[in-house]
Amino acid sequence: MSELGSQIVNPFRWFRGCRDDLYGCRDAFAVVEMAYTFVEMVSRLSR
Questions:
Q1: Which residues, in sequence order, are CB contacts of 27 under 8 Å at separation 6+?
Q2: How open is the CA angle 14-17-23, to the nearest 5 degrees?
Q3: In the chain, helix, strand, coil percent, each to 5?
Q4: pLDDT value of residue 44
Q5: Is the pLDDT of residue 1 over 50?
Q6: Torsion angle of alpha carbons 15, 20, 22, 26, nearest 10°?
Q7: How many domains does one find in the chain?
Q8: Which domain of life is it from (predicted)?
Q9: What residue numbers bound the domain in which 38 lies?
Q10: 42 exposed, middle or buried (CB, 10 Å; 0-12, 13-18, 19+)?
Q11: pLDDT digits (tens, 9 = 90+) for 7-44
Q12: Contact, 37 vs 16, CB < 8 A?
């Protein structure tokens, strides 16, 4: 569970450094896209 928590916190750190670090910003968007895909998959399974 602690690993999941760190994965949730990391995107916020990336967004905070988005202005200074383009690659960090790209990683953050990749994580958001991955999280959206995961939520969509879970919603399909729950039906």
A1: 14
A2: 65
A3: 85, 0, 15
A4: 92
A5: no
A6: -10
A7: 1
A8: Bacteria
A9: 2-46
A10: exposed
A11: 555 666 655 655 555 555 667 777 888 889 999 999 99
A12: no
Tokens encoding 36: 């959206």
The reported pLDDT for the residue numbered 34 is 87
46 by Cβ neighbours in 10 Å (0-12 / 13-18 / 19+) ranks as exposed
CA distances from 40 to 6, 19, 28, 33, 35 (A): 21, 29, 18, 11, 9
With 0.85 as the threshold, say if the pTM is over it. Answer: no
Please give the Cα distance from 26 to 14 (Å, whole number).
9
